Amino acid sequence: MAAALALLAAGPSGFGGGPVAEAKEAAGGKSKKKKAPQYECRVQSPQKFLKRRTFVQKGMLNPKKHAKAVRYLAEHYGHVETEETRRYNSESAHAQAKTVQFMGLPLSIHEKVAPALHCVEKRIRATCNSKSRRYTPRAVGGFRTANSYRGAEISNHLFGIAIDIDPERNPCCGCVDPWPTSPLCHEKKRTAYERTALSRCWIKAFERYGFDWLGHDDLEDTMHFEFLGDPDRLKKK
Question: What are phi and psi of 105, to 5 degrees?
Fold first, then answer.
């Protein structure tokens, strides 16, 4: 049974293996833009027990720790069409999807996470303007309805709290083919920071508001961020 649970990563957490909320820059054309809501977010760290590397170590899933994380996510965001998550919340996570603009690109995420993403963008625009810190995303992925892990693990894209940015520029070296075929994944002396096109400034902006970067995980999923903060303590009052 333990060996079966070890087969986890079926692909990058938001692209491939099912429908993905993906957006690319539109070529030409003008559209009316709504003003983004103005508010401040609390600075907070991702909750440790929700981090993937807490319940998946060396490819092995700890069922008890994983169940604790899934219960919390289901209670706060809704069920993901499984019997287990329905026990904790009768409302679907996907029913609470909201389309937002992130760095000029439309993105479908859980409505509770929208304020955090807004604050991340505000931070990026304020602090990541120099040449070494600048980054322009071409494609983003959020909510999905098909799981992207094998075994018992559940992708946080199903809860709508995860976002992927440019998988072709930011590889997932621990995922299955074709993702590890990126030349960047074969330069073993390089760190995850050096493998990604994202700047550290961008990564720190996400982490400031409760997002965890899976570049820190064994998967080295450098495209992937997930909100693991407390959604009930997100906005400053």
Answer: -115, 135
Tens of pLDDT along 214-234? 999 999 999 999 999 999 998
- The Cα-based distances of 67 to 37, 38, 63, 85, 160 in angstroms read 35, 36, 6, 10, 18
Which residue do the tokens 């690319």 mark? 24
Q: In 3D, which of 129, 58, 102, 133 has the Cα closest to residue 227?
A: 102
Rounded to whole angstroms, the Cα distance separating 151 from 225 reads: 21
Of 182, 29, 17, 24, the closest CA to residue 104 belongs to: 24
Residue type, position 97, single letter: A
* Cα–Cα dist 138/149, whole Å: 25
The sign one gets for the Cα dihedral 192, 195, 200, 202 is negative
Three-state secondary structure string covering 173-202: CCCCCCHHHCHHHHCCCCCHHHHCCCCHHH
Going by C-beta distance under 8 Å and a sequence separation of 6 or more, which residues neighbour residue 99?
106, 107, 108
The structure tokens 């074709």 sit at 178
Structure tokens at 140: 């983003």
The Cα 25–Cα 141 span in angstroms is: 13
**Residue 236 pLDDT grade (very low, low, confident, very high; cuts 50, 70, 90):** confident
- Say if strands 56-57 and 60-61 run parallel, antiparallel, or are unpaired: antiparallel
The pTM score is: 0.84
For Cα atoms 169, 10, 5, give the angle at the middle one, nearest 5 degrees. 140
